[in-house]
UniProtKB/TrEMBL annotation:
It catalyses: 3'-dephospho-CoA + ATP = ADP + CoA + H(+). CDD domains: DPCK (cd02022). The gene is coaE. This is Dephospho-CoA kinase. It comes from Stutzerimonas zhaodongensis. Pfam families: CoaE.
Length: 202
């Protein structure tokens, strides 16, 4: 039987990685959409060839990979190009992520995506878990982790879905504002609950 899919999301600095690591220790299969997004544009993949054909060899690194910095600048300047790129990549990412999730041996599998709500991916999962954290703590964590300025982190925050928007789509919310021992307990509690669900619904 194919596992049902739990979408896990949260803003920058909310601790998604720590949460998914705890689920993994309990034997839950998970896939990170960001990893899949990188994989679909690796050298030799059809998507990379299509990108190079459209934008020219300038978007490739000397080693033949995708130069993300160049690509980012190109699509930020031109919404039409960004739309083209999204239309090329989103279906591939979705297909690949779902194929990887289906390999799970656990009762449910987790799709980790920072943009679960913004990208519409929440419509492909059976249930949504939002890792939430007060904004002040979010900024503090992200600044110390990424060694970036508070202004940069706030800019990223304003580009992501607002907390309210994310929480509106949540079936479950894990407020990650305490220590790891507490987080582990919360994940175990959710895990035991998820094992009782059929297809992700109560």
């Amino acid at each position: 039987m194919k596992p049902w899919v739990l979408g896990l999301t949260g803003g920058i600095g909310s601790g998604k990685s720590a949460v998914v690591a705890e689920f993994a220790k309990l034997g839950v299969h998970w896939v990170d959409v960001d990893h899949v997004a990188r994989w679909v544009v690796e050298p030799g993949k059809p998507a990379l060839a299509a990108i190079a054909e459209r934008f020219g060899e300038g978007v490739l690194t000397p080693g033949g990979g995708l130069d993300r910095t160049v690509m980012r600048e190109l699509i930020f300047q031109d919404p039409a190009q960004r739309k083209w790129l999204e239309q090329l990549l989103h279906p591939l990412i979705r297909q690949e992520a779902l194929a990887k999730l289906a390999l799970g041996e656990s009762a449910y599998a987790i799709m980790v995506s920072p943009l679960l709500v913004e990208s519409g991916q929440h419509r492909q999962v059976d249930r949504v878990l939002v890792v939430d954290v007060p904004e002040a703590l979010q900024v503090q964590r992200a600044v110390s982790r990424d060694q970036t300025s508070e202004a940069q982190i706030r800019a990223i925050l304003s580009a992501q879905a607002s907390r309210e928007e994310r929480l509106r789509h949540a079936d479950d919310v894990l407020v990650n504002d305490r220590d790891l021992a507490w987080l582990r307990q919360e994940v175990e509690r959710l895990h035991n609950f998820y094992l009782t669900l059929r297809g992700g619904q109560e």
